[in-house]
Design brief:
The complex is a heterodimer of chains A (about 230) and B (about 425). With about 230 residues, chain A is mainly α. Chain A folds into 2 domains: about 5-95, Orthogonal Bundle (Fumarate Reductase Iron-sulfur Protein, Chain B, domain 2), CATH 1.10.1060; about 95-230, no CATH class. Chain A has helices at about 5-10, 20-25, 35-45, 65-70, 80-95, 95-105, 105-110, 115-125, 125-135, 155-160, 175-180, 185-195, 210-215, 220-229, and strands spanning about 170, 200. In chain A, strands 1-2 form a two-stranded parallel sheet. In chain A, helix 3 (about 35-45) packs across helix 5 (about 80-95) and helix 11 (about 175-180) packs across helix 12. The longest helix of chain A is centred in the middle third of the chain and has 16 residues, at about 80-95. The two termini of chain A are about 25 Å apart. The model of chain A is unreliable at about 225-229 (pLDDT under 50). The mean pLDDT of chain B is about 95. Chain B has helices at about 10-20, 55-65, 70, 75-90, 125-135, 155-160, 185-190, 195-210, 230-240, 255-270, 395-400, 400-415, and strands spanning about 1-5, 25-30, 95, 105, 110-115, 115-120, 140-145, 165-170, 215-220, 240-245, 270-275, 280-285, 290-295, 300-310, 320, 330, 385. Chain B folds into 2 domains: about 1-95 and about 255-415, FAD/NAD(P)-binding domain, CATH 3.50.50; about 110-245, Rossmann fold (3-Layer(aba) Sandwich). In chain B, a hairpin with a 5-residue loop joins strand 15 (about 320) and strand 16. Chain B is of the alpha/beta class. In chain B, strands 1, 2, 11, 12, 13, 14 and 17 form a 7-stranded mixed sheet that branches. In chain B, helix 1 (about 10-20) packs parallel to helix 12 (about 400-415). Chain B has 12 helices and 17 strands. Helix content of chain B is about 30%, strand content about 20%. Classes of the chains: A mainly alpha (about 230), B alpha/beta (about 425).
């Protein structure tokens, strides 16, 4: 057991079962397939043994958003416990195709955004294709997808970018995949606000932040964010 | 850079934050997580007294000049409660009660618990109103849902009846909903904001009222999250009886409502709340606190302000912690804790009338809430300590947990 794991195991005993995490959890609010962070985290953890199969799969509905950690009054590391429990499930049974599809969302973003966006959006909203997607890949047909943008934020930025001003106030903007492929207007207004306030905006080379990989259990906690961003 | 950083997002921290923000300051509230608001009843206790609680704390101030109420002073107590009531009323969630007389509200086991102010959604449960009811043929009904854990109408009704408040009990059927397994208090509160759900519950209550001639109904405190006042009015109109909420076990919906009211008020005044940020240490010297450090992902985050307000609570809230060696620690800034020797912590009698000395532990302060050491010397000039972290009060035994938080938070907020 390394020191991180030890701190997680010790934090179990800080849970006083107040359910504040469940009341704040966005997943528990919309489905009771997910019984809530308290149950799948500090409670179920007591039944997970190294040498035995995972007792309950409901933890797989955890999206990894960490709201539970934020609101917990006693500092239980619920999201980390859940991430490790999900990694255990994957270790036992392998990664489903669905997880690979959704986990590498930046690939889908790169393929779907641009001039071909209308076609890609049509496909993503087509009931027949979605039904096939549900059968074959296990992606729920009713789950909404964001719309691909006809242009990426980075392509807009390349054209927009003005000659550098003399200001020494510079900001490196990490825009994320969502802004780049789906909602470039978010990036545009961000740049507008920053420039209006006298900042020179720089776009660094950047990849996936690792969150989709983490929530699809394609990467463990320690290496996801550090290796990819 | 902030003018004031408040550590802790409970009643005292948010009150202090609101008052500083109203003075035009840039204020940050840093907190480990949600405060003990979500564990408490959502009522505001001033002092457990059969007579006037306000008179009782004036008396207390003369007998115990170090008591936090004595430091805040009567004027601040009155102003703080007026402010809290105004904030709640503005948010459409009024508090009812009086500083001169406690309400007696049924608890989740049917005991009558004194409190100074309660949300209007609970007031029809006041013992004095129930007494007026007991002579009539139309008794009181306590109702709940089997699906809601830890709320037993039968237990409450029997205990109330044993005290002379004749009451009957009933379980309501769960209206059709997309959920089937998990029914926490919060989930019920969200369901009660749906028209169809209320209609179904309203019909059942109407039938019960018709058959049993009930004039008052006690329900678990799950009647809506953001629109509790409207939910209650709607249910009363549907069933034709007065309805009151009875506090539940945590997560407390009325507790989360009052948190939301105060957090919203703070943010609309320009304040910022940052949860998930446990303050772990501080740096300072020469009577000034300079920096505080909070836990962040894989690092510490450093914060700086001109002034700091410590509102981290007592043992329950995590502001004070005891170690196995018998030493109490203040967890955020490392301030000295004013406490008796370990051997004198407890009275040999468990149910001792005057409580146990250890419960009066906390950070000692001067007349402007600045932390002091055992010699009475001020440690940091730019720090104020408020709420349950303060020494010289036994808040649970005295029945002043929330009142003390509101009064001291307010008083430090206007310094």
């Amino acid at each position: 057991m390394d020191h991180i794991e030890l701190s997680l195991v010790q934090s179990l005993d800080h849970c006083i079962k107040c359910n504040i995490c469940t009341s704040a959890c966005p997943v528990a609010a919309v489905t009771d397939k997910f019984p809530g962070p308290k149950y799948v985290g500090p409670q179920a953890q007591r039944f997970r043994m190294d040498s035995q199969p995972t007792p309950d799969d409901s933890v797989d509905y955890c999206s990894g958003c960490r709201v539970c950690n934020q609101v917990c009054p006693t500092g239980v590391r619920i999201a980390e416990l859940n991430a490790r429990a999900r990694a255990q499930i994957v270790k036992e049974r392998g990664v489903p195709v669905r997880n690979r599809l959704l986990g590498y969302s930046w690939l889908a973003g790169a393929a779907g955004s641009g001039p071909q966006a209308p076609l890609a959006n049509f496909a993503m909203q087509n009931p027949l294709l979605r039904q096939i997607g549900e059968r074959v890949f296990g992606v729920a047909r009713k789950g909404p997808f964001p719309s691909f943008s006809r242009y990426t934020f980075r392509s807009w930025f390349k054209k927009h970018h003005k000659a550098r001003t003399n200001t020494r106030r510079q900001v490196v903007y990490f825009h994320g995949c969502s802004t780049n492929y789906y909602e470039p207007r978010i990036g545009k207004v961000t740049v507008a606000v920053l420039e209006r306030n006298g900042f020179d905006v720089i776009l660094a080379k950047q990849g996936c932040c690792g969150l989709p990989l983490l929530s699809m259990v394609l990467s463990t906690m320690q290496n996801a964010t550090t290796t990819i961003t | 850079m902030y003018d004031t950083i408040v550590i802790g997002a409970g009643l005292s921290g948010l009150m202090a934050g609101i008052m500083r923000a109203e003075r035009g300051e840039r204020v940050l509230v840093l907190a480990k997580g949600h405060g003990t608001t979500h564990w408490a009843s959502g009522c505001v206790d001033l002092y457990d007294s059969a007579a006037s609680p306000l008179a009782a704390i004036e008396q207390l101030a003369t007998e115990q000049p170090d008591h936090p109420y004595a430091i805040a002073g009567r004027a601040a107590v009155e102003a703080a409660f007026a402010k809290l009531r105004a904030l709640c009323a503005d948010a459409g969630y009024p508090l009812a009660g009086s500083l001169e007389r406690n309400l007696l509200l049924p608890s989740a086991v049917g005991a009558l618990r004194p409190t100074c102010f309660a949300p209007a959604t609970m007031v029809a449960g006041d013992g004095r109103q129930l007494a007026a009811n007991s002579g009539q043929s139309a008794p009181l009904l306590i109702a709940g849902f089997r699906d809601l854990r830890d709320f037993f109408p039968q237990l409450i009704a029997e205990n109330l009846s044993a005290q002379g408040y004749t009451a009957a009990a009933a379980y309501l059927d769960l209206p059709p909903t997309s959920r089937s397994k998990e029914f926490t208090t919060t989930i019920f509160a969200r369901l009660f904001e749906e028209d169809a759900f209320r209609e179904h519950v309203g019909q059942q209550l109407r039938r019960l009222v018709k058959d049993g001639r009930f004039t008052r109904i006690g329900l678990p405190a799950i009647l809506g999250q953001r629109h509790a006042t409207q939910v209650l009015a709607d249910l009363q109109a549907r069933c034709g009886a007065l309805i009151f909420e009875i506090p539940t076990l945590p997560t407390s919906v009325p507790g989360s409502r009052i948190y939301q009211v105060l957090a919203d008020a703070f943010e609309t005044r320009g304040g910022r709340v940052q949860l998930g940020s446990k303050v772990e240490r501080a740096e300072g010297g020469h009577g000034q606190l300079q920096f505080i450090y909070s836990e962040a992902a894989a690092r510490e985050q450093r914060h700086r302000a001109d002034r700091y307000i410590l509102a981290t609570g007592g043992v329950v809230g995590g502001g004070l912690r005891g170690d196995y060696g018998g030493t109490l620690h203040e967890t955020a800034l490392g301030l000295p804790v004013h406490t008796p020797a370990h051997s004198a912590w407890f009275d040999p009698r468990f149910l001792n009338d005057s409580g146990h000395p250890v419960f009066r532990s906390g950070v000692a302060v001067d007349r402007t809430f600045r932390p002091v050491d055992e010699q009475g010397a001020v440690i940091y000039n730019n720090v104020a300590v408020v709420g349950s972290a303060l020494a010289n009060a036994d808040a649970i035994r005295e029945g002043c947990l929330e009142g003390l938080a509101v009064a001291t938070g307010y008083a430090a907020g206007i310094l």
